[in-house]
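Retro notes, item 3 of 5
We never archived the inputs for the heme-as complex last cycle. Fixing that now. Sequence and ligand:
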Amino acid sequence: FHSKDGALVLAHILFAFGALFIGGVAGLLQSMVRSGTIELPFGIGYYQLLTAHGVLMALIFTTYFIIGFLYSGISQTLGGQLLPIVNRMGWVGFGLMSAGTLLDVVLILLNKASVLYTFYAPLKASPYFYVGLALIVVGSWISGFGIFYQLKYWKKMNRGKNSPLFSFMAVITMIMWQVATIGVAVEVIVQLIPWSFGWVETINVMLSRTLFWYFGHPLVYFWLLPTYICWYVVIPKVIGAKIYSDAMARLSFVLLLLFSIPVGFHHQLMEPGINQLWKFIQVGLTFMVVIPSLMTAFSLFATFEMHGRSKGAKGMFGWVKVLPWKDVRFFAPFMGMLVFIPAGAGGIINASNQMNAVVHNTLWVTGHFHLTVATSVALTFFGIAYWLIPVVTGRTLTARMNRLGIIQTILWCVGMFFMSGAMHWVGLLGSPRRTAFTTYGENAEAASWLPYYVTMSIGGSILFIAVVLMIYIVIKLMRSPKGVTEYPIGEAEENAEPAPAYLEKWGMWIGLSVVLILIAYTIPVMEMMGPMHYDSPGYKTW
Ligand code: HAS
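Structure as it came back at the time:
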C-alpha cells in the first residue's frame, strides 16, 4: 500500500477510534448521571454528556472511519495510488473536519452546546458550535470531491470499462452524502448561525427539523453503505468465496441512492404541522428503501451458500459450518449482519405510521439505533480495522489479536443484547427516550421501568469494557510485527454477466434522485414557509 496514502488513511482511522473512546466514556457517564447513580463535579449534566456521546460516536467516529476506508479502497482499486491532488484534498478535508470537531468538542465540554447530536431548533447552542459543524461538512465535501476526481481520472485512462465495484460503491456513498448534506448546510448557514448570533430573533422550528431530517435519514445510510461495501466486496474474499452478483450489488446501491433521501418525514410522523398526504408518500418511499437491503440479505445468503456447497457442504444449513468462525475479519462483520435482521425489522416497525405512534420518542428508538449503527455498522468497522490498520502500516494481524478481536465481538454482542433489548422492551412500556428518569419521581409507572434501567446499565458497562478492549487492540495493531497484509477485494463469479453500463450513468441517477426529492419535499416545505407558520425564539441551552 502506498505510504503517502497509508498515512492519510491511518490519520482518519486513528481519529475515529480516538472519538470512539471519548464518546464511550461520555456514554457510560451519561447513563449513570441519568439514573442518578452519580453526580459529577462542575455541574456536568446529562444532556451535555449525551451530546458528547452522540456527536462523537454517531457523527465523528463514523465520518472519519468512512472517509478513511473509502480513500483506502479507491487508492487500492483505482490505479494503486491516489493522485497527488486527491491525496492533498484528503488532507485538506481532514484538516477542516478536525478543526470543526475540536471546536465543537470544546464547546460541548464547556456546556455551550448541549443540543444533542440532532442539534435542530428550538434548542440553541453557541454560534461557534454551528460554525464547527459547517467546517465538518465542508471538509467532508472536499474529501468527497477527491473521490470523484480519482474516479474521473481512472475512467479517462480506462475508457469503456466499468469502474471496480468498490469504487462504484464509494462514489455512490459520497454522492448521497453530498446531496444530503445540502439540507443540513442550509439549516446551519441560513437558519441556525444567524439566529444563534442574534442577527434574527426567531427561527422556523418546523423548517429546521425538516432540513435536519432531510439530511438525518440519509446520514444513517451514509453509515450503512460502507458497511455494505465490506459485506459485498470484502467478506467474499475473506472467506475465499466469489461475489454472488456484481450487477445486483451495483443495482442495490443505485436504489439506495434514489430512495435514501426523500424519506426524512418518517422521523416526523408525529409532527402535527405536516400534511398526512406527504407523510404517506414518504412512508411509501421508505418501504422502497427497504428493498435494496432485502436484496443485500439475499446476495449474502447466496454467497455463503454457494461457497459452502463448493466446499462440499450438504443439507439446508450445512454451509454455516464451513464459514471461518475463528477469523475475526469475518466474525465481527458477520455478527453485524446477524444483528441487522432484527434491527431492520425494528426499522420497518418504526416506519409504519400507527406503530410509530407507539414507539416514537421512547427508548425503543434508542434501542433501534444501537442495533443498527452501534452494532451492525460498528462491528463491521471494527472487522475492517483488523486488516486495514495492518495493510496501511505494513504489519500483520497476530493470532493473539485475532483471538482478542473475537472476544471483543462477543462482549459487544452480549452487552448490546442486554442494553438494546432492555431499551426496546421498556420503550414499549412507554419509557421516554431522553428525559431523565428522576423527572418522573415517585410515579408508579416509572418505578416499573427500574429493572430495565438496571439491565441497560449492566449492558452499557459490558459495552464500555468492549470499547476499552477495542482501543487496546487498535494500539497493539499499530505495533504488531512487520509484514505484508493483503487488501481483501472480492471478485465476481466466473460465469457472472458483466454489470450493464447504464448503472454508471451518474447524471441520470443524480437527476432521478433530485426529481424524487422535489416530489417529496417541494409542497410541504412551501407550506412550512407559508403564512400559516409560527417562528420561535428558541431555548438557549447555555
Ligand atoms: Fe432507522 C430512527 C426506520 C435502518 C439508524 N434509525 C433511527 C434513528 C437512527 C437510525 C440513528 O421509520 C434515530 C434518529 C433519532 O435520533 O431520532 N431504519 C428505519 C428503516 C430502516 C432503518 C425502515 N436505521 C436504519 C439503519 C440505521 C438506522 C441501517 C443506521 C445505520 N429508523 C426508522 C424510523 C425511525 C428510525 C421510522 C424514526 C423513529 C422515530 O419515531 O423517531 C431500514 O433501512 C431497515 C432495512 C433492513 C433490513 C434488514 C436486511 C438484513 C440484512 C442482513 C442479512 C444477514 C445475513 C447473515 C446474510 C430489511 C442485509 C445471516 C446468517 C445466518 C446464519 C442467519
